[in-house]
Amino acid sequence: MEILEMTESDFAAGLAKAQTQESDSQTEYDEAAKENEVEKETLETEVKFKNKEYKQLDKTISQITSDRDSLMTEQAAVLEFSSKLKDRCIAEPETYAEIKRRRDAEITGLKEALEILKTEAALLQRKQKSFRLRGQTP
C-alpha cells in the first residue's frame, strides 16, 4: 500500500507540476497573443499612413514634374529669345575687306556719275521773275 500511496503522491506532484506549467504556458501564450495583436494593429496603422504618405508624395512628384517641364519650356523660349536678341544688339565690327569693298564701290559710282555729267549737256533752269498784279493768284 505504501508503494501505491507513494506512487499516488508522485503522480499528484507530477500532475500539479504539469498543471502549473500548463497554466504558466497559457499565460505566456495569452500575453504573446496580446502583444502580437497590438503589434499587428500598429503595423497595419503604419501601413495605412505609409500608403497615405506615398500617395501624397506621388501627387507632389507629379506636380513638381509638371512645374519643371513648364519651366524648362519657358527657359528654352527665353534662351531662344536671348540668342535672337544678341544677334540683333551685339554689333560685330566690319572687316577691313568689307569696308574697302564698300568704299571702292562708292568711289566707282561717283566717278561714273562725274563722267555722265561731263559728257551730257546739263540743263540749267533759271528762275524767272514774274510780276503779278494785285489780286491775281500765281
The overall average pLDDT, rounded, is 87
Distance between the termini: 172 Å
Supply Rg: 56 Å
**What global shape is seen?**
rod-shaped
Biggest sheet overview: none
Secondary structure tally: strands: 0
Assembly state of the chains shown: single chain
Question: What does this protein look like?
Answer:
With 138 residues, the chain is an all-alpha fold. It has one domain (2-109). The chain contains 2 helices and no strands.
Task: Summarize the model shown.
This protein is mainly α. Helix content is 81%, strand content 0%.
Keywords, separated by commas or semicolons:
single chain, 138 residues, mainly alpha, 2 helices, 81% helix, rod-shaped
Topology:
Elements: H1 2-89, H2 96-119
